[in-house]
Specification:
Shape of chain B: globular
Structural class of chain B: mainly alpha
Number of helices of chain B: 13
Helix content of chain B: over 70%
Radius of gyration of chain A: 19 Å
Helix content of chain A: over 70%
Number of strands of chain A: 2
Order of helices and strands of chain A: HHHHEEHHHHHHH
CATH topology of chain B: ABC transporter involved in vitamin B12 uptake, BtuC
Oligomer: heterodimer
Largest sheet of chain B: none
Structural class of chain A: mainly alpha
Chain lengths: 287, 329
């Protein structure tokens, strides 16, 4: 019973965090075809900025979370304007500029914070009990923030004018231009939201697990898997693929030990990709 | 007419002469640089040149393999395990593990040949991560997380790095010549045709999936060779030299030199390994040097470093032309 509840909460938290980070990646990928390999580092940067604000400046945790989101999201606008926009449609140069961003940010964090594993203070303390089961408030809060944000983003994309313009761009870029949509503004907005979500996920995961300069690499791989399995241009697909990945990551270690569970998860994903190369939802892109 | 012929004849003679001169200069380098550290860096450069050039062989068939370092790892670990646990001589394990790597590559290339462009890149990326996880899960056979030690040396009894230097120089030369011959043969032309349009290529009778698998096989053979050579030179293996980031760095070597030219990967590897070494005193800050080189190439040279002479030439003629115009006015 204890194990089931722990696994279930772990599954929900991992899935919601994967989906949070993947949404920002998927926005850029489906709208402009940008394979943002620097997204993992932005997630890592979020965690470290949050840590700095809390420990060095002594800010309230929730204020720090908000400020981190704003800082990283603004940084995202900068990235979109000077690093991504000049190279749209050029896969090779996008990969190179993303490696440049990755190297610069990782080295910077290494120099400033060191390579040791750090951790954010927890966002909530105490244990919540229902009958025999007990869940820590930390997990509940992490999942609640994730779930609320995901609902908000879904609402934004489906119900607001800007969100519908984003969908239009991801369906047909030239058509969107012809309809008078300001593509640059919308792509800047998408990067703003995406980087902000990644930063929030970085802070939450930094409190839930730990912070390290190379945590971004791990997340980047997860995000790439999730986006490819989901297919391009489908938010619902990302949710389902996120749940699949989260359950693979939380349930498989119970059945298979150690690194073999990672290998099994990847084998399952490769088979899924071979069955449906263009993803299970959404449409195919030409790059 | 006569004059044009004679210049072409001279050019046909000068080109091999220039290349032969370059090879002689590289072969004489250990005489000038006696320090084992510099020789070690040069040996690593040779190994990564083989990997980068073989990466490009797969790329010209229109596939972007993000598992290339993982294949290097397969070759390296196969050679290490064959010589450590089976007691085979390194001179047998190196060609053998290169062949087995090529076989694995072709076996994997078969299901993957139905993935195209980005999806192939992603599929191979997942495969590469899977390979690393399998090596981690291998326990004492592969050394797992702590790495594999105690691998027999290729040339036991020599402390000097100079014999290794000439061995890897020879290996790199042979690989480069072989891959050059493949690229500019009928096979290479077919591969480029598939990359341009797989529909047109298959409509004129090119066996698309066959040639793509062949390209992967050739690329994996040479990268397996590089990995196996690296194993018996380094004698210690760690999984992190073959993970996703290692693949990305291989991609950087190719892209910075210029992916559209055969010399690109060679130049890119040399630049990205040698130049940061000059800034070794910066210690923790030295990755910024690499990032700066990459940034300069990304923003200023869309075709990579190979296009630099041409860019300078066109800039110069442009300036000369504008001068002439201003004089005339």
């Amino acid at each position: 019973m204890e194990l089931i509840i722990a696994t279930l909460t772990n599954l929900l938290i991992l899935s919601s965090m994967y989906i949070l980070v993947a949404l920002g990646f998927a926005f850029l990928f489906s709208m402009l075809g940008i394979l943002n390999l620097a997204h993992g580092v932005i997630y890592m940067l979020g965690g470290y900025i949050g840590l700095t604000l809390i420990t060095a400046l002594g800010l309230n945790q929730w204020l720090a979370l908000l400020l981190t989101t704003l800082i990283v999201a603004t940084f995202g606008i900068f990235l979109e304007k000077y690093c991504f926009r000049p190279f749209v449609g050029d896969f090779n140069r996008i990969v190179m500029i993303c490696v440049v961003i990755t190297v610069v940010l990782q080295t910077g964090v290494n120099i400033i914070a060191g390579t040791q594993i750090l951790s954010l203070p927890p966002f909530a303390e105490g244990i919540f009990k229902i009958g025999p089961a007990s869940v820590s408030y930390e997990r509940i809060v992490t999942f609640a923030i994730g779930a609320v944000l995901l609902l908000a983003v879904t609402w934004f994309v489906n119900r607001t004018k800007w969100g519908q313009q984003m969908q239009a761009i991801s369906q047909d870029l030239e058509g969107a231009y012809l309809q008078g949509i300001n593509v640059h503004r919308i792509s800047a907005l998408a990067t703003f939201i995406g980087c902000g979500l990644a930063a929030i996920a970085g802070c939450l995961m930094g409190a839930y697990l730990c912070l390290g300069p190379f945590m971004g690499d791990f997340m980047l791989v997860k995000v790439l898997m999730l986006t490819i399995i989901a297919g391009v241009g489908s938010i619902g697909g990302i949710f389902i693929a996120g749940l699949i990945l989260g359950s693979l990551d939380s349930v498989l270690p119970l059945l298979v030990s150690g690194a073999a569970s990672n290998a099994t998860a990847i084998a399952i994903l490769v088979v899924l990709l071979l069955i449906r190369p263009q993803g299970f939802f959404g449409h195919e892109v030409e790059l | 007419m006569n004059r044009r012929l004679s210049t072409r004849g001279r050019r046909e003679l000068t080109k091999p002469a220039v290349y032969a001169g370059l090879v002689v200069i590289v072969a004489l380098l250990p005489l000038f640089f006696g320090s084992p550290y510099i020789q070690h860096m040069l040996i690593l450069t040779f190994i990564y040149i083989i990997a980068a050039v073989s990466f490009r062989t797969i790329v010209i068939s229109g596939q972007f393999p993000l598992a290339h370092a993982a294949f290097m790892g397969i070759g390296a670990y196969l050679a290490a395990m064959a010589s450590k646990w089976l007691g085979l001589s390194p001179w047998i394990t190196i060609p053998l593990s290169a062949l087995v790597t090529a076989g694995i590559g072709m076996l994997i290339g078969y299901p993957f040949s139905r993935l195209r462009a980005l999806y192939y890149a992603m599929g191979s990326l997942f495969f590469g991560i899977g390979v690393i996880q399998i090596i981690y899960a291998g326990g004492s056979w592969t050394g797992g997380y702590s790495g594999l030690t105690g691998i027999p040396a290729l040339l036991p009894g020599t402390i000097s790095k100079i014999p290794y230097y000439y061995f890897f120089l020879g290996l790199a030369l042979v690989s480069i010549i072989a891959l050059y011959r493949i690229e500019f043969s009928r096979i290479g032309t077919n591969l480029k045709a598939i990359a341009q349009s797989h529909v047109v290529a298959s409509s004129v009778g090119i066996n698309e999936s066959g040639y793509r698998i062949l390209a992967v096989g050739v690329g994996c053979f040479f990268v397996g060779l590089a990995g196996a050579g690296y194993t018996h030179y380094n004698m210690v293996l760690s999984c992190s030299s073959f993970n996703f980031m290692a693949t990305l760095w291989l991609v950087m070597y190719v892209l910075i030199g210029g992916i559209n030219s055969f010399a690109g990967p060679i130049i890119g590897t040399i630049i990205l390994i040698i130049i940061p070494e000059f800034f070794r005193d910066l210690k923790m800050f030295s990755p910024f040097v690499t990032a700066a080189i990459l940034g300069i190439v990304v923003y200023l040279m869309p075709q990579g470093l190979v296009s630099l002479p041409q860019m300078v030439r066109s800039r110069l003629t442009e300036r000369r032309n504008t001068k002439k115009v201003s004089h005339a006015s």
